[in-house]
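step=encode ok
step=design start
structure_in=
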């Protein structure tokens, strides 16, 4: 088990306001680790933090496909949410609904008072009243059916980040492919805000260097990777924490770890450094031509 303080949490500084925690983390960390808890449970939250999570996300009023859980109304969880907040000073987010009809203004207006820093919700579940400042940082998710060009407008509305929940529901739990990486890279080039990748695929720690190289700013581990038990969650979070902490470290040859060194032996490719965040505006990194999502199957709430 790793010490929860080892990651050098940025939010312990007193000059960071409550609702700037997510933005500050994404700005200052090379790659962040967010854990979307499979249940609203203090024990699971503690386990994630002790193993090195940088941020936490919880749910209410939503059916969660990956975990198989249904999360009830906000009032069922106010005590546990306050308890998690009392033990954690970092970015703390919430999914407030699984539908636009279920997103209640009176609930959203309570979230900042419960200690939340940001909300996370699909764009098509986000009612217009949430575009007015509710005292929270705003993130939104898209699925596989979205037109990629639409995300370019996100920064105009003051969103902090985009959650790339673009894997079709029927493909949840399958391995990460290069096609996925191309989609994530395209969103990094288009979005104008940091891109977060949830673990709809069965991500493994060996995927970390490639995901980092795509330009994303956070990996969000959910039930597909963490499982539902404390022990499963601890193992998963620890593995990804270690992989993120190794980014940019010197390898045996003295050179920084590259993508090819992180993949299976015998695979070759262009050498690449991970010394910093790739410039998403550099057209030489990857073509910015639009990538279409060919699978238009419907999906419910994301894998995290």
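sequence_out=
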């Amino acid at each position: 088990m790793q010490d929860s303080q080892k990651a050098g949490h940025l939010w312990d500084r007193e000059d960071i306001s409550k609702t700037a925690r997510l933005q500050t983390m994404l700005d200052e960390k090379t790659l962040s680790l967010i854990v979307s808890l499979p249940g609203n449970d203090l024990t699971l939250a503690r386990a994630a933090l002790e193993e090195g999570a940088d941020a936490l996300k919880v749910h209410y009023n939503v059916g969660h496909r990956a975990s198989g859980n249904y999360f009830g109304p906000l009032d069922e969880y106010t005590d546990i949410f306050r308890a998690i907040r009392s033990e954690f000073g970092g970015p703390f987010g919430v999914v407030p609904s699984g539908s636009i009809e279920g997103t209640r203004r009176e609930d959203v207006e309570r979230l900042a008072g419960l200690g939340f820093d940001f909300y996370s919700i699909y764009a098509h579940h986000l009612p217009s009243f949430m575009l007015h400042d509710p005292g929270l940082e705003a993130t939104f998710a898209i699925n596989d059916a979205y037109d990629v060009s639409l995300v370019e407008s996100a920064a105009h509305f003051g969103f902090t980040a985009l959650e790339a929940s673009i894997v079709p529901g029927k493909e949840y739990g399958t391995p990460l492919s290069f096609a996925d990486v191309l989609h994530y890279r395209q969103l990094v080039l288009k979005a104008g805000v940091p891109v977060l990748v949830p673990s709809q695929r069965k991500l493994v720690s060996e995927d970390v260097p490639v995901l980092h190289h795509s330009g994303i700013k956070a990996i969000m581990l959910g039930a597909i990777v963490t499982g539902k038990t404390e022990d499963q969650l601890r193992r998963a979070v620890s593995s990804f924490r270690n992989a993120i902490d190794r980014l940019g470290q010197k390898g045996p040859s003295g050179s920084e770890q590259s993508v090819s060194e992180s993949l299976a032996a015998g695979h070759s490719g262009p050498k690449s450094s991970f010394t910093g965040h790739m410039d998403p505006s550099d057209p030489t990194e990857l073509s910015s031509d639009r990538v279409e999502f060919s699978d238009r199957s419907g999906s419910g709430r994301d894998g995290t």
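step=design ok
step=annotate ok -> The first strand starts at residue 32 and ends at 36.
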